[in-house]
Amino acid sequence: MHLDRLLTLIRNYLMNPDTSFSSSLYLMAISKLGKDASPRDRASDEFGCVEFVTEIIHTILPEVSIMLGTYTFWEYMKNNSRFQETLFPTRGCIIISPTGTSTKRAKTGHVGILGDNEIIMSSDSRSGLFLENYSVRSWKLYYKDKLGFPIYYYKLT
Fold first, then answer.
1. Could you tell me which of 150, 66, 140, 46 has the C-alpha nearest to residue 103?
2. What is the average pLDDT across 94-115?
């Protein structure tokens, strides 16, 4: 991650600060950009997205356990009052397309965190790094249209 990009993200945040849990999640996520998405290797880099996102959440809310599967994490969010499903995602919201929910029998879902301007930060299975690697549009094109996954957004409350 280039330092200039990180400084831009922080400057943009400071122009419109927010003290919500979702905003804390966003700040923690941008601080992790460019880093190993699965540093403890509980899951391989190819499948480390949930591990990394739940590690970030765990630093803000220690009662949230570190998880490894998108379906498990989705079930957890659906049944936990700290997570509220939303149709109007903003920065710091979680985007998830859970494994096991594809209408086209695609095998592996994915999870990420929304940043500004509908940019999504998530683990990159090729590099193993946490990157700004999707937009909401490109996520929809790939996970919904191509692979047949539903898309859910959750806000941390």
1. 150
2. 97
